[in-house]
Amino acid sequence: MPEVPAQYLLSAQAPAARTLIDILRETAERYPDATGVDDGVVQLTYSEMLADIEEGVQWLASRGIGRGDRVGIRMPS
Question: In DSSP terms, which residues pair with 37 in a beta bridge?
Answer without folding.
Answer: 44
